[in-house]
Amino acid sequence: MLVKPLRTDSPAELFRSLKIIGICWLAFPAVALIGRLSLDLSWPAMMVMFSAGVLMPLGRDLADAKLPGIPAILFLPILFQLWLSLQTRAGESALIRAIPWVLLLLAQAAYTLLAWNRRRDFSASALCFLAAGVFPLVGGGWLLAYCAGWMPFGFDALIVLLTAAHFHHAGFTLPLIAGLQAEHRACAWTRGCCLLVLAGVPWVATGITCTHFGLLRWVEPIGVAVLVCGALGVAVEQLRTALMAGMSSWLRAGFFFSGLSLFIAMLLALAYGLRTLLPGLALPMPQMWAIHGSLNAFGFGLLGLLAWRCHHGGAGGRKGGAHETL
Questions:
Q1: DSSP letter string over 210-229?
Q2: Strands (E), 144-239
Q3: Are 258 and 223 in contact (CB under 8 A)?
Q4: Is the dihedral of CA 193, 196, 198, 200 positive or negative?
Q5: What is the pLDDT of residues 47-94, one digit of tens each?
Q6: Phi first, then psi: what are they for 2, rounded to 5°?
Q7: In angstroms, how far is CA 209 from the centroid of its own chain?
Q8: Whole-number CA gyration radius for the chain
Q9: Which H or E element spans position 2?
Q10: Pick from 126, 124, 193, 165: nearest CA to 301
Q11: What's the first-to-final CA gap in the chain, in angstroms?
């Protein structure tokens, strides 16, 4: 087992991380008030926005193949158009407004694939970083379908939007943090978690499609079990990291509550995934995506990325002002 020493806690990196959140989110109420626009979004749509505007900028430079920073002066208009697309009635206007975000995801996926192809690194951590760069593009495809009013495979609009949110979260923060864990502590446990996460994310999506068509109903429960096992392993590793010596109390709390949030969220996901076998255990759909999604986004994703950024040292110096990169 290889363990890389974690870097000293970095308050400066925490402040930079909080600045990223502020830049991405404080701009929207200001623009909305000036333009007299509504701030109302459905909760699944807000989860997509939270991943796009907070989690992805925070995690962009944590992977082994660091993605290039995007100047805020370019990123914020793209994010604003994404927000408008989720507020606009499905159709041509919403589709056009979502396209810049999906093109950004396409560029991210292409950059990640090219960087991986140069190294051809088949380690568990490298494959997780690769997935974190590529999986969100799948979510982008489902987002385009939602904005255009298309219903792939006959799914209703809510399922299409939830699938987009799934790949923006489970397809990004989960493999990214699993990869960071395997990079920091290379052992059978972290490698196994990585492989289960890599298999589980697309397996669950395939299983939901099979269940929708009444085919191979065993695919979804098994896929959920695979993903849950991997995610629970990631949660336990976050909790283990919180117990390491030489860590400040606030950073320890970040790792701990990140792991605890993921642990609870995945138990809920397991109960929902087994609903065809044990229907009494599953929460109703509105409660499921509200509780499970919130725990994943705010508990696991946000706290986990903040904790890893402070230990990882983030991206180092970035230019400020209009040249601030996200």
A1: HHHTT--TTHHHHHHHHHHH
A2: 185-186
A3: no
A4: negative
A5: 898 898 888 888 877 865 555 566 767 788 888 889 889 888 889 999
A6: -105, 125
A7: 21
A8: 19
A9: strand 2-3
A10: 165
A11: 34
Eight-state DSSP code of residue 186: E
Find where tokens 């926005």 sit.
49
Give residue for tokens 């792939």: 152
What span, in angstroms and rounded, lies between the C-alpha atoms of 171 and 167? 4
Residue 3, SS3 per DSSP? strand
Place of tokens 């950004």: 104
0.70 exceeded by the pTM?
Answer: yes
- Output the CA–CA distances (angstroms, integers) from residue 226 to 82, 201, 297, in the order listed: 32, 9, 21
The CA distance from 96 to 305, in Å, is: 31
233: helix, strand or coil: helix
**The tokens of 121 are what?**
């690194």
In whole angstroms, give the CA distance from residue 70 to residue 324. 8
Residue ranges in the chain modelled with pLDDT below 70: 1-40, 63-70, 72, 276-277, 312-326
Which two three-digit tokens encode residue 64?
């082994």
Tell me the C-alpha distance between 132 and 232, whole Å. Answer: 18
